[in-house]
Amino acid sequence: YxxxxxxxxxxxxxxxxxxxxxxxxxxxxxxRLHLERMHEPATxxxxxxxxxxMILRWPTQYLWGYNRYKRPRRA
Length: 75
What we know:
Distance between the termini: 11 Å
Helix content: 25-40%
Strand content: 15-25%
Order of helices and strands: HEEH
Number of helices: 2
Shape: flat
Largest sheet: 2 strands, antiparallel
Radius of gyration: 15 Å
């Protein structure tokens, strides 16, 4: 399910790929933005691994009910 567009855009434009995560601070204190540049090519596998690292850094901030990483019924 991982998009190939970031990899294709980075290949065509030679731009940097930057991951972003917002950490929700205590009630009413706002957000902290975390940016991480990918130094390896943004292949779908590399994107998944980078996302996994970010999620493991702040697991309580991740919306775990999201179905993106579940295997489809007919796959």
